[in-house]
């Protein structure tokens, strides 16, 4: 069963790129006391994710933060080096690129996507959440495309 509105995010240790290299972060710490927009993509550098999904949040970051959001976090089942390189390639300076390297977070959320049939392995479904102090206030999961989880959809919900 997937996470629902009103649920608290599971505490999982993930990775971000710090000034001195990869750093472990706990989701409980990332979301504690903050209003956060979290969105997930099936994979860094993939067509829709790179051409439209992440760029929408890059362009709308200031508008989203102006609505009282403390941080915007993008996650994918990729390693920290890939997430860091993708963020740099997309000029995502205002977005935390959160690496769910082995898919533990996606699985704990119940939002895992099995793409082994096309040699992609286990990934994350495409979704967006508004999370307030670790509690899910909005959950938009896309089955196709990225209409529900787009920056525009999140902005409209704020």
Automatic annotation (TrEMBL):
The keyword Oxidoreductase is annotated on this UniProt entry: yes
UniProt keyword Transferase, yes or no: no
Record keywords, A-Z: Antioxidant, Oxidoreductase, Peroxidase, Redox-active center
Domain Thioredoxin: 3-158
Gene3D superfamilies on file: Glutaredoxin (3.40.30.10)
One Gene Ontology CC term in the entry: cytoplasm
EC number: 1.11.1.27
Substrates-to-products reaction catalysed: a hydroperoxide + 2 glutathione = an alcohol + glutathione disulfide + H2O
Annotated active site: 49 (cysteine sulfenic acid (-soh) intermediate)
SUPFAM superfamilies membership: Thioredoxin-like
GO molecular function: thioredoxin peroxidase activity
Record-level GO BP terms: cell redox homeostasis; cellular response to oxidative stress; hydrogen peroxide catabolic process
A family per Pfam: Redoxin
Superkingdom of source: Bacteria
Family according to the record: Belongs to the peroxiredoxin family. Prx5 subfamily.
Function comment: Thiol-specific peroxidase that catalyzes the reduction of hydrogen peroxide and organic hydroperoxides to water and alcohols, respectively. Plays a role in cell protection against oxidative stress by detoxifying peroxides.
Protein name in UniProt: Glutathione-dependent peroxiredoxin
Organism: Marinobacterium stanieri
